Each structure stands twice: as structure tokens, then as C-alpha cells.
């Protein structure tokens, strides 16, 4: 069976590649590797196959899955909840489907954080664009959508990839959208651009989603895009759902480590299986368990940038890769002492990483916040609203295992506003939102502000900083874009994987998911995660 929840026939079986996590990146890389019928691929996914559940396929039910069984609901300090997809397709099965890319300079900075000798691998805009396009099948705006104000630059999009992207049938056609575009320009000078995916996202425009226009706006998750079309024909690819990978098994525990496979256990909403199964990897183990869990598996570096959480690391930690000081008290033998988990980024390394980010903000003028304008069905019919999302925080969080029980959630510290500049950015962004709503032509449509309203009185200058700060601290929620927990960076900077996405000091373990982003980007992440996974697949194939 191509997708199964039974370990029978998988337990004890060898595969060429084992992919841990059938999420956004995991299914992408598995699909590409299994294009060669001589290569066998096993994907092990903790969640179930919920492709037929409207909470997954119906993009108009976005947010309904939060807090339910399809959501990991990791907890962090101050009672915060970090939602992440626990279902086939991972976050791509429950996310908002916003389809955007970061700026040219942000991708170029990834190379700058690697060894010079690795620059040729092409972790930059020019090297990523072909892969982001490869993943995509863009449906340019229809005449009706054009009339409502949709724009695009079709040449920057892919037109024959697996992930469908388009504007929706439900695209709202009222006067509020053009009024917002014009008011944003009038209030701030930010220009109206045609497309957020063209590498220059410092602008205001309407944005497509990862949905299939020709299939009634059905969500185009990684499962729908990469697995569904081939699942009945590609017999060399098996996906096991409802099983948690508990650790990586090692054939050789001297550096460079060689993985021999994985151990896994049944995992349902009611069962933490006690039986441990194994599967063997002839070639490689590929970690794609997301930015929180990879760290649990790897037990490696955890930068927890605001809006980013790293799931993968936990699996690394359970497998003996991580900070010895964390693993020793848990009686886990440290195989690779990767100290970057938690607090080990030296001041010198942080200076380099922060300077790269500051340069992107100051020289490249990369967007520091996103204003997500909402109208139509998402809010009451007489309301217009804006979410303000901070894109490039300097605060860093961390993920660490707390026990050797693989079912136990890792300890997550998001450290929001640990760097006070992040709070300044929030306040400046919110003041600008208020200004835009008070600027024509949007102001002509508004009868006044309800939220935050009197909670942050407008003193004529947009409100007092102290009032805004208190408001942000009380109301702030993460946009749930964790990255960087197993960063692709020079080892001296705290990197966990090299430019080939190989974990340092291992021969055959790679990380392929949002964990490897060394820095945050001014975009929603999924389009870039697909690009990373597509590029990773080619790197892995080239190494065969
Ligand atoms: C609520 C929400 C809304 C978002 N909205 C958008 C948006 O509108 N647009 C956008 O572009 N991006 C959005 N994002 C971000 C984007 O979806 C994610 O960054 C991206 O999909 C992450 O991909 P990934 O492959 O790194 O991880 P995931 O897609 O999370 O995949 C990891 C997979 O590994 C599985 N797993 C974890 N641990 C184990 C284990 N031990 N054993 C087996 N399996 C395991 C998980 O269940 C999961 O399926 C959103 C994210 C969230 C959470």
C-alpha cells in the first residue's frame, strides 16, 4: 500500500532513503527521489492522512484545524501555543496558503553565511528561483480577478510544477482593496507592485494562494501536489502515517557518524506505542520533521527566531547530536557535540548573523513587517482589519529535549521581544497601520477604529509608545514561521548543516525543511520551503 498506517512489511525492511516527516519538504524530496524507479523511499509521518478532511482541503476552513488533532500545539513560555501541522503534508495542509517569496538579498545572504568554498552550491536568489519555479504551477489572474485588482508577473512563476497557485474564486471585489493599496502608498510612500514573488517585496499588492483554481480552490498541499498524483503508480515510494520516529540508528558512532536507519513507534491521538520498530537506510536518512522537531532529533543548534520555531531538532538530540551539557544529565551519549542548541551562539557569531540581517533591512530595504489586510468573509461584513506580522526579528529562541521519552514535547522558549528593537518595530508598524486607516481614500470608508481603539488612545501622533508596548505584550501572537533550528551556516557561526544540507560530522544524515533557513525572510515560508526541498533533491541525486 503506498500510504499506510500499518508497520507490517516496513518493520525491518531496507530502503535507499528514509525521510523523517511527511510534511511540506519531506513529501517534496521523497517525490523527487522516487522518480527513479530503482530507488526505494520510505516516509514516516507522525500525523494521519487527512486529505479528505475539509479542515485540510477546504482553504475557506483555514484556522479551524488549530487546537485540534491535526495541530501539534507545542507550548512555550507565558502560555504561548505554537501551532504546527500534524498531518500528512505537515504545515502545508493547515496553513493560510499565502504564496510569497523573500527578497533577492535575503536569499543571497544564505551564501554569505556559508564557507566561501561552498558558494558554488548556489544558495542565493539565482540558485533558488529555478527550484521555486519548479515546484509551482501558477494560474495567472482571470479577467474577473484582473478587474478586481489582481496583478502578477507570470514569468517569475513556474507553470508546470506540482503546487498550484492562484487567486481564489472567493476573491473579494469591494472598494476596500483598491482603497487600501492607495492609502498605503499615500501614507508611507511604499509603492504598488505587481507581484510579491519577484524578489522585491517591499511594496503593496494583492497576493495569490497555494490553491487549485481549476479544482474549486482546493488546497494544494505537499500531499495533494507531490503524492496524490503518483501514489498508485509509484511502487518504490511508501508512506507510513501515524508513526513517530523516535531516533536515528547509527552504524558507526565515531565521527563521521553513519546512520543505518531509524527507530519508530505507533502514534495516534490515543496511543503512544510501546513497541519499537526499525527500518534500514541503505543510503541516507533525511530529516524533514519541521523546525521544532528536527532539533529534538538532532539535538543541535537552535536559533529560535521570532515567528520561527524548530521542530526537527528534538529528534537530533534524542539521537545523540547536540550540546553535551544538555544530553549528559539525560544519560544520552553525545556522539556529536554541537553546542549551538540553546545558548551557544558566540557573541562573535551573533554579530555576523545580525549584521547580515541589519544590512538586508538598511541597504536592501527588505520589509520588516507585513500588513495583512483582511476584508470580506474573514471579518464581519462591515469591518476591515489588518494583521501586523513582524518579519525579521532579532530575538532568538530555543528548543531542547527534556527527557529521553520521544513522545514528550521539547521545552520551547520563544523569547519574544528579548531584543527590545523588535518591540520598537511592532510599535512603529502598528502606528503606521493606524495612519493608513486614517489616510484617504481608505479613511473615506471607515467610521472609526474599534481595535485597539481606546486601549491605545490616539494622541494625534498615532498613540503613546508605552500604550502600544503594553498592548503588543498583551495581544501579540506568533505568525508560526519557525526557522533556523538546524541552520545551514558555517560551523563557526553555529551552523548545523553544510551547503549540501548534511549534518556536520555525519556521512549520510541531511536536514531538508524550514530548520535549515539560516535567517528569516520577508515572506510566508512555504514557497521557499518547496524551493529548498526541490534543490535538496537535486543535490542528493547528484551525490548518488
Ligand atoms: C498555522 C500556520 C499558518 C501558516 N501560514 C502560511 C501561509 O499562509 N503561507 C506560507 O507560505 N506559509 C505559512 N506557514 C508556514 C509554512 O507552512 C511552514 O513554514 C512550512 O510548511 C514548514 O514546512 P516544513 O517541511 O519545514 O515542516 P512541516 O510542514 O511542519 O513538516 C514536518 C512534518 O514532520 C512531522 N513530524 C514531526 N516530528 C516527527 C517525528 N518524530 N516522526 C515522524 N514525523 C514527524 C510533522 O507531523 C509534519 O507533518 C504557516 C504555518 C503555520 C503553522
Write the SSE topology.
Elements: E1 3-4, E2 14-20, H1 24-33, E3 41-44, H2 54-57, E4 74-75, E5 81-82, H3 104-112, H4 125-134, E6 136-139, H5 143-147, E7 163-166, H6 176-188, E8 211-212, E9 218-219, H7 222-227, E10 237-240, E11 243-252, E12 258-266, E13 277-287, H8 290-298, E14 304-305, H9 314-318, E15 321-322, H10 324-327, E16 336-337, H11 347-362, E17 369-374, E18 385-390, E19 396-400, E20 411-413, H12 420-437, H13 442-445, H14 465-475, E21 509-511, H15 526-542
Helix pairs in contact: 1-15, 4-15, 6-12, 12-14
The structure holds flavin-adenine dinucleotide.
Description:
By secondary structure, this protein is an alpha/beta fold. The protein has one domain: FAD/NAD(P)-binding domain (3-Layer(bba) Sandwich). 26% of the residues lie in helices and 17% in strands. It contains 15 helices and 21 strands. Strands 1, 2, 3, 10, 11, 12, 13 and 21 form an eight-stranded mixed beta sheet that branches. A three-stranded antiparallel beta sheet has the order 14-19-20. α4 (125-134) crosses α15 and α6 packs across α12. It is globular. Bound molecules: flavin-adenine dinucleotide (FAD). Flavin-adenine dinucleotide (FAD) binds at residues 20-26, 44-47, 83-86, 90-92, 94-98, 244-245, 288-291, 293, 311, 315, 480-481, 513-514, 524-527, 529.
Amino acid at each position: 500500500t503506498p500510504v499506510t498506517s500499518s508497520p507490517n512489511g516496513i518493520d525491518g525492511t531496507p530502503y535507499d532513503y528514509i525521510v523523517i516527516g511527511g510534511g511540506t519538504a519531506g513529501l517534496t524530496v521523497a517525490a523527487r527521489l522516487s522518480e527513479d524507479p530503482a530507488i526505494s523511499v520510505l516516509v514516516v509521518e507522525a500525523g494521519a492522512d487527512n486529505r479528505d478532511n475539509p479542515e485540510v482541503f477546504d482553504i475557506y476552513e483555514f484556522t479551524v484545524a488549530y487546537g485540534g488533532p491535526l495541530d501539534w500545539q507545542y507550548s512555550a513560555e507565558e502560555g504561548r501555543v505554537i501551532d504546527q501541522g500534524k498531518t500528512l503534508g505537515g504545515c502545508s495542509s493547515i496553513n493560510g496558503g499565502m504564496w510569497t517569496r523573500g527578497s533577492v538579498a535575503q536569499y543571497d545572504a544564505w551564501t554569505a553565511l556559508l564557507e566561501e568554498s561552498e558558494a558554488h552550491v548556489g544558495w542565493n536568489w539565482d540558485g533558488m528561483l529555478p527550484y521555486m519555479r519548479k515546484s509551482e504551477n501558477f494560474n495567472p489572474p482571470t479577467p474577473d480577478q484582473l478587474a478586481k485588482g489582481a496583478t502578477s508577473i507570470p514569468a517569475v512563476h513556474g507553470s508546470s510544477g506540482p503546487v498550484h497557485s492562484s487567486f481564489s474564486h472567493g476573491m473579494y471585489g469591494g472598494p476596500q482593496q483598491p482603497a487600501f493599496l492607495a492609502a498605503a502608498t499615500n501614507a508611507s510612500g511604499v509603492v504598488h507592485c505587481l507581484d510579491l514573488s519577484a524578489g522585491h517585496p517591499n511594496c503593496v499588492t494583492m497576493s495569490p494562494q497555494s490553491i487549485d483554481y481549476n479544482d474549486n480552490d482546493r488546497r494544494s498541499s505537499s500531499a495533494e501536489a507531490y503524492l496524490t498524483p503518483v501514489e498508485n503508480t509509484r511502487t518504490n515510494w511508501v508512506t507510513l502515517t501515524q508513526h513517530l520516529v523516535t531516533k536515528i540508528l547509527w552504524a558507526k558512532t565515531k565521527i563521521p557518524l553513519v546512520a543505518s536507519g531509524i527507530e519508530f513507534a505507533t502514534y495516534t491521538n490515543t496511543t503512544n506505542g510501546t513497541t519499537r520498530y526499525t527500518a534500514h537506510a541503505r543510503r541516507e536518512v533525511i530529516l524533514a520533521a519541521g523546525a521544532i522537531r528536527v532539533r529534538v532529533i538532532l539535538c543541535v543548534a537552535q536559533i529560535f527566531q521570532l515567528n520561527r520555531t524548530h521542530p526537527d531538532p528534538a529528534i537530533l538530540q534524542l539521537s545523540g547530536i547536540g550540546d553535551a551539557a544538555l544530553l549528559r544529565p539525560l544519560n544520552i551519549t553525545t556522539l556529536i557535540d554541537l553546542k549551538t542548541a540553546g545558548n551557544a551562539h558566540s557573541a562573535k557569531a551573533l554579530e555576523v548573523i545580525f549584521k547580515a540581517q541589519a544590512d538586508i533591512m538598511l541597504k536592501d530595504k527588505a520589509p520588516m513587517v507585513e500588513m495583512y489586510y483582511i476584508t470580506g468573509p474573514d471579518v464581519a461584513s462591515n469591518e476591515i482589519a489588518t494583521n501586523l506580522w513582524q518579519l525579521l526579528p532579532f530575538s532568538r529562541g530555543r528548543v531542547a529535549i527534556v527527557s529521553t521519552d520521544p513522545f514528550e514535547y521539547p521545552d520551547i522558549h520563544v523569547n519574544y521581544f528579548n531584543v527590545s528593537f523588535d518591540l520598537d518595530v511592532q510599535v512603529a508598524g502598528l502606528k503606521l497601520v493606524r495612519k493608513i486607516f486614517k489616510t484617504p481614500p481608505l479613511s473615506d470608508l471607515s467610521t472609526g477604529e474599534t481595535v485597539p481603539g481606546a486601549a491605545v488612545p490616539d494622541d494625534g501622533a498615532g498613540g503613546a509608545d508605552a500604550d502600544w508596548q503594553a498592548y503588543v505584550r498583551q495581544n501579540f501572537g506568533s505568525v508560526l514561521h519557525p526557522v533556523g533550528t538546524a541552520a545551514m551556516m558555517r560551523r563557526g557561526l553555529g551552523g548545523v548543516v553544510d551547503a549540501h544540507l548534511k549534518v556536520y560530522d555525519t556521512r549520510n544524515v541531511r536536514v531538508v525543511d524550514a530548520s535549515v533557513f539560516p535567517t528569516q525572510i520577508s515572506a510566508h515560508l512555504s514557497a521557499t520551503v518547496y524551493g529548498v526541498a526541490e534543490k535538496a533533491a537535486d543535490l542528493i541525486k547528484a551525490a548518488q
